[in-house]
UniProtKB/TrEMBL annotation:
Belongs to the iron/ascorbate-dependent oxidoreductase family. The keyword Transport does not apply. GO terms for molecular function: metal ion binding; oxidoreductase activity. This is Fe2OG dioxygenase domain-containing protein. SUPFAM superfamilies: Clavaminate synthase-like (SSF51197). The keyword Metal-binding applies. One of its GO terms (biological process) is small molecule biosynthetic process. Keywords: Iron, Metal-binding, Oxidoreductase. Residues 176-305 form the Fe2OG dioxygenase domain.
Length: 349
């Protein structure tokens, strides 16, 4: 089985009248979110050059910045220096899923918190983003702005799919408390597997918010999506498309009509990419890891509700799912705080 396709192009321009093309897109979105929770998004209008620039920016920095440079933007616990417990660079193994270290390094970025103070100490998620440099920040800020427009377009498509007015979700997503991760996956060596049995590139999880727009390089065999019968479906990259998935908030909003599907990032078994980085290496738990062969880069942008948005099951969705609300309602910011707190090894663990 492979993932379905959804064409968002009829919804890109806000304020356009209803049309058969919109109805077709909305129907395919409904089916994809209901049946799988994952799909290829086409017709998104973001140029390939923009996507390549984002991926190259991450790859270049991850593979050329020194450990000291990486440490200057390290994620720190909330209240420690400029740390807010979430933003910044995480070295390999620092991220944890289901009690196992994930075999990746990443920079985590978030929208500005509505109550962000001007200087430290910072409460969890209240700090500023820790950027590697100005160019990185300019490229990512402009890219994320484009994804936010796309996220809003997909919310309009979702509204039509649920027979709601197109602008129904607007008050809940403005401004989106977006999240972005710039992730690098070094090859998962036999030695690394031995040092961390059961650990993978990114352990099995669901995402937290509305839509994840996943941009990756062309490495295949990495992302796996849990299918209905427990089989793992390959979500290999498709040129010109985003891999998009439903997050927990959409599942709650739709009372389970849309699925927030479990997925995991295996490390690709093949050594097929990026010969140009041959010779570069880093050390993980005393193990030398060669980066040249199949270092994978992945940049998910998570399009989320606003920090204060209250998400509870929609009446129409309750009716379609047996007449009982399955979720009690959540404030997105609080939900996110709970999730982020369990994502890292901290001194307390
Ligand atoms: O790197 C990938 O392909 C998936 C990453 C992911 O699922 C996540 O960061 O939530
Ligand atoms: Fe994910």
């Amino acid at each position: 089985m492979s993932l379905p396709f959804v064409d968002v192009s009829p919804f890109l321009k806000k304020g356009t009248p209803p049309s058969p093309a919109k109805d077709t897109s909305a129907k395919s979105l409904f089916d994809a979110c209901h049946d799988v929770g994952f799909f290829y998004l086409k017709g998104h209008g973001i140029p390939k050059e923009t996507c390549d620039l984002v991926l190259d920016t991450v790859r270049n920095w991850m593979l050329t910045a020194t450990d000291e440079e990486k440490a200057t933007i390290a994620r720190k616990d909330a209240g420690v220096g400029d740390g807010d417990g979430a933003r910044g660079y995480q070295k390999i193994g620092e991220n944890v899923t289901l009690g196992k270290s994930d075999f990746h390094e990443a920079i985590d970025l978030y929208a500005t918190h509505p109550l962000a103070p001007p200087s430290p100490p910072y409460q969890p998620l209240h700090g500023p983003n820790l950027w590697p440099n100005h160019l990185f920040s300019d490229i990512f800020t402009s890219y994320i702005d484009q994804i936010l427009l796309l996220g809003a377009a997909l919310m309009r498509c979702m509204a039509v799919a649920l027979s709601l007015p197109e602008d129904h979700f607007e008050p809940f997503i403005n401004p989106s408390f977006w999240v972005c991760r710039a992730i690098g996956y070094p090859p998962l060596t036999p030695e690394a597997i031995k040092a961390n049995p059961g650990g993978v590139g990114c352990g099995a999880h669901s995402d937290y918010g509305c839509w994840t727009f996943l941009l990756t390089d062309e490495t295949r065999g990495a992302l796996k999506v849990e299918g209905k019968d427990g089989e793992w479906i390959d979500a290999n990259p498709v040129e010109g498309c985003y891999v998009v998935n439903v997050g927990d908030m959409l599942m709650q909003w739709t009372n389970g009509l849309f699925k927030s599907t479990v997925h995991q990032g295996n490390h690709p078994p093949t050594l097929d990419l990026l010969q140009r980085y041959d010779g570069l290496m880093l050390t993980y738990m005393g193990i030398v890891v060669h980066l040249g062969s199949n270092y994978r880069v992945s940049v998910p942008v998570f399009f989320e509700p606003s920090w204060e948005a209250k998400i509870s099951p929609l009446e129409g969705c309750i009716v379609k799912t047996g007449g009982k609300a399955l979720y009690g309602g959540a404030t997105y910011g609080e939900y996110l705080l709970g999730k982020v707190a369990s994502n890292f090894y901290t001194e307390k663990q």
